[in-house]
Amino acid sequence: MLHIRKTFITALAILLIIPLLLPQSASAAPSASKNAGNKASSKIIYLTFDDGPTAHTGQLLDILDQYNAKATFFMLGPQMEKFQKATKRIVADGHGLGLHGVTHLPGKFYKSAYSGLKEMQQANESLNKVAGVKTSLVRTPYGSKPYLKSAYRNVLLGQGGFHLWDWNVDSEDWKYKKDHQKVYNSVMKQIHNVQKSGTTPVVLMHDQEATLKVLPQVLKTLKAEGYQFEVLTKKVQPVNFWNDKR
């Protein structure tokens, strides 16, 4: 009986020692790989483009395809009807869909509590007419502050059922149409600052010729830094200047 007990203790000791003799890299590899995957998957970015579609949308989509990147397009009703091929391709390529109104004029869009709602509904009808789909995502002209007052938001979001989006990174591609390096430096600095704060970057860009000059450089850098390009949907909590989560 004593002999059996000694044999059992000896065998147990060997089993406990064996893992300590194994190379440390072998046991550490799985967790390191898992952590790297988590880090990569947490670097999500949302690229958004306003004011389209335009005559340049096809080239913009080609660049996005080249880098396997998705974006969200906040489109104007008349532009969708004018550039129907581009509108259909945006939908077919799986990009996010948003509305930007009809007139893009503050004096008309924000004329009353119901004027903005009417423009978004009209833009949605244009999207449906051209591509057979609708969306509940909206971005108001020039952003929601200070024009979109509380009563206006209640109509647009409450009665209209829309979801309001602004941005936390302004590329300023609308401002520096010839200084592409300045746009690149500014947008990358802002993206890094937003990311460091623990917030997902939502980048404002425009569907225009000037943006085509800087977009490849931005996408190349973001890809190299491990960002994943995702599209906005009604399931994503809205980012807007009023912190309105509806």
UniProtKB/TrEMBL annotation:
Keywords assigned: Signal
Residue ranges occupied by any NodB homology domain in the UniProt entry: 43-230
Protein name according to UniProt: Peptidoglycan/xylan/chitin deacetylase (PgdA/CDA1 family)
Organism: Paenibacillus pabuli
Highest rank taxon of the organism: Bacteria
Plastid as UniProt keyword: no
One Pfam family, short name: Polysacc_deac_1
Signal peptide: 1-28
Keyword hit for Ribonucleoprotein: no
